[in-house]
From TrEMBL:
Top-rank lineage group of the source organism: Eukaryota
Name this protein carries in UniProt: GB1/RHD3-type G domain-containing protein
SUPFAM superfamilies in alphabetical order: Interferon-induced guanylate-binding protein 1 (GBP1), C-terminal domain (SSF48340), P-loop containing nucleoside triphosphate hydrolases (SSF52540)
Transmembrane segments: 376-400, 406-423
Gene3D superfamilies named in the record: P-loop containing nucleotide triphosphate hydrolases
Domain GB1/RHD3-type G: start-end pairs: 40-252
Family recorded in the similarity comment: Belongs to the TRAFAC class dynamin-like GTPase superfamily. GB1/RHD3 GTPase family.
InterPro entries with a match to the protein in the record: G_GB1_RHD3_dom, Guanylate-bd_C_sf, Guanylate-bd_N, P-loop_NTPase
Region: Disordered, residue numbers: 464-483
Protein keywords: GTP-binding, Hydrolase, Membrane, Nucleotide-binding, Transmembrane, Transmembrane helix
One annotated GO molecular function: GTPase activity
Length: 483
């Protein structure tokens, strides 16, 4: 059972100075150990030490999360939640200096009913470019001397140089405790991160125990120096263990290879040909885009849709020729799919036609008559309902007259609202709906009416060829005259 005392933070109890000396902050240490809920209780210190930039602080933050959520099956919690605790970051430069304690003390009750105070310690990584060997040895020795469990954080394997560093570092601690006849340190746990040999030893404590026995085994075939090293390590700790951890991303990679989403591997020739054809597609599309930009892009004036489309067809054919004339790998059959992708609407995404749609929309935005279509349509609707309402009033049909007045008011409100949307940029969805309604009214009613009126004004029906046989038009003084 764990009782959470308070939200904690890292407190530096040992500082490193510029002259490579160390300063103990006794006040900070006292505030943690002499707190009312901690003093007079046995203390268990869990420390993590090892080379710098190997994830020690990151690992300790998971220890903290476990202690806060102990007793819950899903103690990891939300996998997307930020990892809080000791400072950690990616990169190649060191982040932790000196020795830090987490000031949130966890009270744990053992099976015998004794209450223990559990503390977590983070240490400066060894072998960075700013620390001497003595600095590294001192940090490691002090953390080992004061910890109940010293986690020796290693990457991928237990190598001989790891054991040699451990021998050097622990010897500093032995020098400080020469008057002690028993083993100077308590428990050492080799934590091997990113273990990549599960066929030699399983992940976890059992596999770690097997690897540790092999690494610390003493035989007559070994050199005396190697034998002495292993005897020294065993003599320093009352208990030694090992734990093998898999790479955190290995399971994800395995699942990807098991799934169907992984693309089929390509030959070097196929991959090169694909890149070659994609580059040719990009070049052809750039040529098309440059030509369209000169015609209707930026500050260019408005073009009629018919003229714009004719230029589009011409430039699209030019882009096809550009693609076809470019030397490519893979042959014509392989390149045909990229040519179709460039210009054919039947294969999506067809690059050039999509680009043309964007240019057409941009060009339409320059049409001042198209921009004025909505207000003109709404104003025409207002006038129409005004005159129709007046006509119904003269005829005494006041119900229809009032209904027309209502529609006229709604049209006028829509016109004012559309102007506000255009001016302020607010309620753009409402403005888009008003534009759609105005376009429907224009296309279905006003535009056909406008065309009919204009045709009648240019050439009246009695002057067309559809008139009677005896009627024909002859020019007289530059005008048409019916005979």
């Amino acid at each position: 059972m764990v009782e959470r005392i308070e939200t904690g933070r890292p407190v530096q109890i040992l500082r490193t100075k510029d002259d490579h000396s160390f300063e103990l902050d006794e006040d900070a240490l006292g505030r943690i150990l002499l707190a009312d809920h901690v003093k007079d209780k046995p203390v268990v210190v869990v420390s993590v030490a090892g080379a710098f930039r190997k994830g020690k602080s990151f690992l300790l933050d998971f220890f903290l999360r476990y202690m806060r959520n102990q007793g819950q099956a899903d103690w990891l919690g939300d996998p997307t939640a930020p990892l809080k605790g000791f400072s950690w970051r990616g990169g190649c430069e060191r982040d932790t200096t000196g020795i830090l304690l987490w000031d949130e003390v966890f009270l744990v009750t053992t099976s015998q009913g004794q209450q223990l105070a559990v503390l977590f310690m983070d240490t400066q990584g060894a072998f960075d470019c700013e620390s001497t060997v003595k600095d590294c040895a001192t940090i490691f020795a002090l953390s080992t001397m004061t910890s109940s469990v010293q986690v020796y954080n290693l990457s991928q394997n237990i190598q001989e140089d790891d054991l040699q560093h451990l021998q050097l570092f622990t010897e500093y601690g032995r020098l400080a405790q020469q008057d002690m006849s028993e083993k100077p340190f308590q428990k050492l746990l080799f934590l091997v991160r990113d273990w990549s040999y599960p066929y030699d030893a399983d992940y976890g404590a059992n596999g770690g125990r097997a690897i540790l026995e092999k690494r610390l085994q003493i035989s007559d075939r070994q050199h005396q120096e190697l034998q002495q090293l292993r005897k020294h390590i065993r003599s320093c700790f009352s208990e030694i263990g090992c734990f093998l951890m898999p790479h955190p991303g290995l399971k994800v990679y395995v699942n990807i290879f098991k799934g169907d989403e992984l693309p089929e591997p390509k030959s070097m020739l196929e991959a090169t040909a694909e890149a070659n054809n994609l580059a040719a597609v990009a070049t052809a599309k750039d040529k098309y885009t440059s030509g369209m930009e000169q015609l209707c892009g930026g500050d260019q004036p408005y073009l009629s849709p018919q003229v714009l489309e004719s230029h589009h067809l011409r430039l699209r054919e030019s882009a096809r020729e550009q693609f076809s004339s470019t030397r490519k790998m893979g042959g014509e059959e392989f390149s045909q799919q990229y040519l179709d992708r460039l210009t054919e609407a039947r294969l999506l995404p067809f690059e050039i036609d999509q680009t043309f749609e964007n240019f057409a929309k941009h060009n339409e935005g320059k049409n001042i008559f198209a921009a004025a279509r909505t207000p003109a349509t709404l104003f025409a609707v207002v006038l129409a309902f005004y005159f129709v309402s007046g006509a119904f009033s003269l005829l005494g049909i006041y119900s229809l007259s009032n209904f027309c007045n209502l529609l006229m008011g709604l049209s006028l409100i829509s016109l004012c609202l559309w102007g506000y949307v255009r001016y302020s940029g607010d309620m753009r969805e409402v403005g888009a709906q008003i534009d759609n309604i105005a376009n429907i009214i224009w296309a279905s009613l006003l535009k056909p009416l406008y065309k009919t009126v204009m045709q009648d004004r240019v050439l009246p029906p009695h002057l067309t060829g559809g008139a009677g046989e005896g009627t024909r038009a002859t020019p007289l003084n530059g005008r048409l005259k019916a005979n």
